[in-house]
# Entry
Amino acid sequence: MPPKAAINVIGIYTGCVATALALSAGLVAITGGSWTSVVTALVDGSIRAPGRWGETIGVAVPLIVIALGTAISSRAGLINIGQEGQLLIGAALATYVGVRMTGPGPLVLVCLLLAGIIGGAIWAGVASGLLYWRKVPEVLTTLLLITVASQVVGYGLKVDWLLLASTDGRGVRNQVSDQLVPDRRFPRLELWGNEIPLSMIVALALALVVLILFKRSLWGFRLRVLGNNPRAAIRAGVSPTRYGSTAMLISGGCAGLAGALMLSGGDFGNYRFTSGFSNNIGWEGLLVALVARQHPVRVVVTAIAFAGLRTGSGFLAATGVEPEIAQVVQALLVLALLIPPALFFIRDRRRALNAARDRT
# Structure
């Protein structure tokens, strides 16, 4: 990229982010708070306070995994917005295996992770089948399947032999699962007063694998061709059904894996599965992929930033500002980071149309 063009890109991004921050500051002022105290609370809650950056990393893990799966389906030109439901099904199946399966703890941990992948892939596979065999748009089916997933999970948490915890030692029959026993959980590393789940290694390894697939593999190249120009892909011998279905299954499998990592990592639900277990992580993972523009390295950085806003919002109560303000700030920053690509697309589109007009 020429230096002048690079300066223009940096300037547009900087202007959009500055505008979002200014609007956030105005919103805080309107609600009677102090912008500086809000920033301080967010930084303390996500990084500076004892044990907080370890929790931020734990929250970032499922966001990274979901965003990477979304990047793969987007690479193939598919719009998967059902990560919330795929996460729920994957986490539910992982819970069933983690609680019911007998055997050595490490083996059960591996099996529950595989179960999460299978559960998410099956749920995304339903949308894939409807797309390629019945021509039903995946953006519609993946969204509607979230509601179905919540109902399926709700039923499972009412049945003893499925997900509902046993009554032994419990006075109230809340709709929760049994807790994973210690040897079926991901180990946590103590570092400078923070507990870091080793599931972060899984997320970073997956990011590296996806980066290599996108940059260095024939499969990644064919996937990009399919997403950019399906007709050219078909002429080149790339099967939309084969590659598109594979991308959708991997995307759903990543969402299901995120649910299994949330269960076994301990940062969500205290190693138990509940009806509200997903906690909007699926939606936020989708936003991470959009903001990072499906690039694996940017996904990791963006996920940590989003996780920081989530963990830092818990400290806003001390400032007198509602915790939901953090969500508004997050939304404004998402818009700020999505506007520049839209402007670049419009600019390039106009240039292409003008060039075509000049040739004629």
Remarks:
- The longest helix spans residues 324-359.
